[in-house]
């Protein structure tokens, strides 16, 4: 830092005419240059360190002028006023950093600072002062004084309030410098101009708690949403009108007429619609068909139809000969006649071709259990409007399960990150046919060896391309065959450990499924916090075609240094049946354990007071709550926190 100056000043907050007297230190930072291999925009910063003047200090004896802050007209003035008030209330120094652009362009998303600095330990609060699609004009550095401060601040495009644990402002600001180099390493200023677009969003999700980030992303990108969902959906209410331009009541049931109903709704809308998005697996093919009819950007309908069907997905894989498909127990018996024993080695996995969330997935060890699992899986969707009784039978792969999320653009992999899916009940060696495969916890980033992660990256990309996709956000699930690591308990903690007798066979990826959409809300939120990647934003931009390729490339860049912490999305399952008595089980747990709250970056209780719990044997896979728990220190510390949460999480039933 250079250009350091320190003065005593008084600020008058308008409206209200409140007077705050402080000692101010100004530090102009040098212009930030792009780090190696990044397209980081050029910018410079102004740091203001405020220290409250002692009580009873006469302003007239210390300063010549009163600085007026108009908080109603200037968000920058309002941000500074909040920081000064924080300093006064704590009687402690407060540092505020204002960011100024050193190049022209357009802001990629107007909340770039809030989104990339979420969970940043050197930013108690971050605010962007720009509007969606706003043009950015380069601001030359200047010497800041009390006389020009208010005018200079109005030219800033973002502000950061730092958390001060001591009087060592230099240490905190140095840490913030490093964080900005790491997290603002993507092109948050791009060439323009950028234009407002309109996207039809089909199926508005069940509530705001599992959709809010998607709607925030649309607003930040300058995209107007037209929600299409069944009449009576909560987004139709006036209370949520700020999230969308319009709500169109539409029958979105999954049947052969869905694509045409969407086409008719788009054509009837009075304004042009530029793209259509859904994150509902079973509606993706209909959306693609509607886009093809309307001439809107989309991947081929055939690609989505393959991704939706686990049998078609498996048949495209190099190891497809190990699996087969039947639609009934009778067809199973016929298929087994003459089938080589080498291709029917137990244990086997049985699952519906149109399954989701590991629903109705069984591991079987013998012929009778195989027949029962096929009967159950074939009946799972037999009565649906898009009825499908097909069942996939495939080998059980005794290797680590991994979620792989990729962003592709014209066949190029822009980003890829992985997380570990820890073993569930169905993975146990003594698991019965009734043991389920509901997720228990997911840990970011993956603890697999780098060579195994590289095998997954290359293999999964090839699988996606084989299905006919070239661009998109993809949430894939796979296991590592012949992995050199396995799950083992060490010091009371279950985690990946090297095998004492590793296999000699080649490491390979065994694909379970490709979901041609962002991961579920919990994981999408976790990835955004850990890596700075917002899959909802990227998916929205991809729906608009090649005009948005620049922003897609920009937003597909994670933090320069990778994940900022170890994070576990920890599921608290139903352990008993009954009516929930506890008002909010997650909040109650965190109130009882404030030290765990400090390590919790996200949480939500799904089964609140009055909810009916079916218990562990529930046909549906609804959990009680989830907690996203972190450690900035190590994966081991994160897993220790998870173990504590699982042991101590509780709820009451009536």
Keywords for this entry:
Rossmann fold, 27% helix, BL00235/CARNS1_N, single chain, ATP-grasp, 4 domains, metal ion binding, 654 residues, D-amino Acid Aminotransferase, Chain A, domain 1, alpha+beta
Folded structure, characterized:
It is a single chain. The chain is an alpha+beta fold and 654 residues long. It folds into four domains: 2-190, no CATH class; 197-298, 3-Layer(aba) Sandwich (Rossmann fold); 399-563, ATP-grasp fold, B domain (D-amino Acid Aminotransferase, Chain A, domain 1), CATH 3.30.470.20; 566-648. It has 18 helices and 30 strands. The protein has an eight-stranded antiparallel β-sheet, with helices on both faces. Strands 4-1-2-3-5-9-7 form a seven-stranded mixed β-sheet. It has a four-stranded parallel β-sheet with strand order 13-12-11-14, sandwiched between helices. Helix 5 (212-221) packs across helix 14 and helix 14 (535-542) runs antiparallel to helix 15. The model is unreliable at 58-64 (pLDDT under 50).
Q: Strand percentage, roughly?
A: 25-35%
- Give the oligomer, counting copies of the same chain as homo and different chains as hetero: single chain
Tally of domains: 4
Query: What structural class do helix, strand and pairing data support?
Result: alpha+beta
Number of strands: 30
In spatial order, strands of the major sheet run 25-22-19-20-21-26-30-28
Query: Main beta sheet, described?
Result: 8 strands, antiparallel
Low-confidence stretches: 58-64
Whole-number average pLDDT? 92
C-alpha-based Rg, rounded: 27 Å
Tally of helical segments: 18
Shape: globular
Portion of residues within helices: 25-40%
Give the terminus-to-terminus CA distance. 61 Å
Protein name: ATP-grasp domain-containing protein
Keywords: ATP-binding, Ligase, Nucleotide-binding
Organism: Venturia inaequalis
Domain ATP-grasp: 310-544
């Amino acid at each position: 830092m250079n250009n350091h100056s320190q003065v005593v000043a008084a600020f008058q907050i308008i409206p209200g005419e409140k007077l705050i007297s402080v000692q101010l230190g100004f530090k102009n930072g040098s212009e930030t240059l792009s780090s190696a291999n990044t397209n980081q925009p050029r910018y410079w910063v102004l740091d203001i360190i405020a220290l409250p003047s002692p009580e009873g200090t006469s302003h007239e004896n210390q300063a010549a002028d009163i600085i007026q802050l108009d908080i109603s007209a200037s968000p920058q003035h309002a941000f500074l006023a909040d920081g000064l008030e924080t300093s006064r209330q704590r009687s402690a120094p407060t540092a505020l950093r204002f960011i100024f652009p050193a190049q022209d362009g357009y802001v990629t998303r107007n909340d770039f600072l809030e989104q990339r600095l979420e969970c940043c330990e050197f930013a108690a609060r971050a605010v962007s002062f720009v509007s969606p699609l706003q043009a950015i004009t380069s601001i030359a550095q200047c010497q800041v004084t009390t006389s020009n401060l208010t005018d200079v601040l109005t030219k800033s495009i973002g502000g950061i309030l730092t958390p001060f644990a001591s009087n060592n402002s230099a240490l905190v600001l140095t840490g913030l410098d490093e964080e900005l180099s790491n997290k603002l390493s993507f092109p948050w200023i791009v060439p323009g101009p950028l234009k407002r677009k309109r996207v039809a969003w089909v199926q508005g999700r069940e509530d705001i708690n599992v959709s809010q980030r998607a709607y925030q992303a649309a607003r930040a990108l300058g995209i107007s949403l037209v929600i299409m969902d069944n009449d009576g959906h909560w987004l139709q209410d006036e209370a949520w009108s700020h999230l969308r331009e319009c709500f169109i009541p539409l029958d979105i049931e999954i049947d052969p007429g869905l694509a045409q109903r969407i086409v008719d709704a788009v054509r009837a809308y009075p304004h042009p619609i530029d793209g259509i998005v859904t994150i509902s697996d079973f509606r993706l093919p209909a959306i693609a068909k509607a886009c093809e009819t309307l001439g809107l950007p989309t991947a081929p309908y055939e690609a989505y139809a393959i991704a939706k069907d686990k049998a078609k997905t498996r048949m495209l894989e190099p190891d497809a000969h190990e699996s087969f498909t039947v639609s009934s127990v009778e067809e199973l018996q016929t298929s087994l006649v003459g089938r080589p024993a080498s291709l029917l080695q137990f244990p086997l996995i049985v699952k519906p071709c149109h399954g989701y969330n590991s629903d109705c997935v069984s591991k079987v060890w013998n012929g009778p259990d195989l027949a029962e699992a096929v009967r159950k899986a074939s009946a799972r969707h037999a009565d649906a409007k898009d009825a499908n009784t097909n069942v996939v039978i495939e080998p059980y792969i005794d290797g680590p399960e991994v979620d792989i999320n990729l962003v592709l653009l014209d066949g190029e992999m822009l980003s890829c990150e992985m997380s570990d899916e820890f073993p569930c009940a169905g993975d146990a060696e003594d698991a019965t046919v009734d043991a389920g495969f509901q997720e228990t916890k997911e840990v970011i980033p993956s603890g697999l060896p780098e060579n195994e992660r590289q095998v997954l990256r290359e293999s999964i990309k090839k699988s996606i391309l084989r299905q006919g996709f070239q661009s998109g956000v993809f949430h894939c699930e796979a296991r590592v065959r012949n992995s050199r690591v396995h799950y083992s308990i060490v010091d009371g903690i279950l985690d990946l450990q090297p095998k004492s007798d590793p296999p000699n066979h080649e490491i390979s990826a065994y694909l379970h499924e490709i979901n041609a959409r962002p991961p579920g809300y919990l994981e999408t939120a976790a990835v955004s916090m850990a890596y700075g990647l917002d899959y909802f934003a990227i998916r929205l931009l991809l729906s608009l075609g090649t005009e948005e390729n620049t922003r897609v490339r920009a937003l597909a860049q994670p933090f320069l240094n990778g994940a900022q912490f170890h994070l576990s999305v920890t599921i608290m399952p139903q352990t008993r049946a009954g009516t929930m008595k506890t008002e909010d089980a997650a909040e109650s747990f965190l109130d009882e354990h404030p030290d765990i709250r400090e390590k919790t970056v996200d949480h939500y209780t799904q089964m609140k007071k009055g909810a009916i719990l079916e218990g562990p044997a529930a046909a549906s896979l609804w959990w009680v709550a989830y907690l996203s728990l972190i450690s900035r220190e190590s994966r081991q510390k994160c897993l220790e926190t998870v173990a504590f949460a699982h042991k101590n999480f509780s709820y009451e039933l009536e």
